[in-house]
Specification:
alpha+beta, nine-stranded antiparallel beta sheet, four-stranded parallel beta sheet, globular
């Protein structure tokens, strides 16, 4: 028998599928508003307490979580649709997730809405990739992130290795035209259950090895917010969404992809904005009025803290980094460091992007995981 939530409890309860750092920061924002939080995560893996320990890809477990909370949201877009369909009050909803999880369907939806996307095509066979042409980016239609699930193919000679790397005989793939870009941009859009929208500042992102390294706010390009809002509306999204775009050498913008959740490129909003992406996500999924995304300082820069090697999850150099003024350090509390794993982030505010970047990078340079 599925347990039910105690209706006499005064606090609204938020359920989250996943218990990683995104859930941890969302939970902090929810508790600030007086909410209780319960996450569903694999045994021993949650960074958030309390946690319901189970499989969020199992409809029986998602149904159980739904019976204990008022609203369910997620920190990962990789939850299987049958598990999502078992949740009666879910934001983003199943229809939105169906459009986003499959990246080919996502691109088709955005193209149908008139948004600028690279040329793309379904490529179920290597011959279909050859017909599409080179250079191209071959991508898994599902479950790719941080460069995992993508391969740049510059010529027909590189195709067999890329096909094998992505296991094209087992996974559905599609191809996108290679974008010769000068800059990667991103934005957080939050949309409420009533359709109200707030648009955060556009940011420039610097990526290394396909992982976001630095986020610089703000970047002045009003076109980005318009495109991103239209994208979220096209998928009928509710909550905070992260959109990534390419700025081409000709000045044109191309949509890369959207994440149906709070996003790494919006972590700076915790200190830099009046209402963070996390708080506005909570407000949106509960149907509450959205808060202001305006910045508290002229500029902000966030630097991700990545694992340097395999080892303990406790950071070295934290004491020295804490001496730097106007810097906010977030350590996620993961038990083990793995090379390239996101272990925390640093945000600095300043009168200019250059000033904020200098402080954030100085602090981040002192902190090391896995050494």
């Amino acid at each position: 028998m599925v347990e039910t939530r105690d209706v006499n409890r005064p606090a609204p309860t938020l359920g989250i599928l996943g218990g990683g750092q995104l859930a941890k920061m969302t939970a902090a924002a929810a508790r600030q508003l007086g909410c209780d939080v319960l996450v569903l995560e694999q045994p021993g893996r949650s960074l958030v307490a309390p946690a319901l320990e189970g499989d969020w890809n199992d409809p029986a477990w998602t149904r159980k979580l739904a019976g204990l909370v008022d609203v369910v949201t997620l920190e990962s877009e990789f939850v299987n649709l049958p598990a999502l369909e078992a949740v009666p009050v879910l934001f983003p909803g199943v229809a939105t997730m169906r459009l986003v999880q499959d990246k080919l369907l996502q691109k088709q939806t955005f193209a149908g809405a008139g948004l600028p996307v690279p040329r793309f095509a379904d490529t179920p066979t290597p011959d279909a990739v050859r017909a599409f042409g080179f250079p191209c980016v071959l991508k898994k239609r599902r479950n790719g992130y941080d460069g995992k699930g993508n391969a740049t193919v510059r010529s027909a000679a590189e195709l067999p290795a890329a096909w094998a790397k992505l296991e094209g005989d087992r996974h559905a793939l599609y191809a996108e035209e290679f974008c010769d870009f000068t800059m990667e941009l991103a934005i957080i859009i939050t949309r409420g259950r009533d359709g109200a929208v707030v648009r955060y500042p556009v940011v420039e992102t610097v990526n290394r090895d396909h992982i976001c390294h630095i986020v610089k706010a703000p970047h002045d390009d009003p076109r980005v917010a318009d495109i991103a809002q239209r994208a979220v509306e096209a998928i009928d999204g509710v909550g905070s969404f992260g959109m990534e775009l390419f700025l081409g050498r000709d000045g044109a913008l191309m949509v890369n992809e959207i994440a149906p959740r709070v996003h790494n490129t919006g972590h700076y909003t915790i200190e830099a904005c009046i209402c963070s992406q996390f708080e506005n996500h909570v407000r949106a999924v509960f149907g509450w009025p959205l808060g202001s995304p305006a910045m508290r300082a002229p500029a902000a820069v966030m630097v991700n803290l990545l694992g340097a090697a395999d080892g303990p999850g406790m950071p070295q150099g934290l004491t020295e980094a804490l001496k730097i003024p106007n810097v906010h350090i977030h350590v996620y509390g993961k038990s083990r460091s793995v090379r390239g794993r996101k272990m925390g982030h640093v945000t600095a505010l300043g009168a200019s992007v250059a000033e904020a970047a200098a402080a954030a990078q100085r602090a981040a340079g002192l902190i090391r995981f896995g050494a």
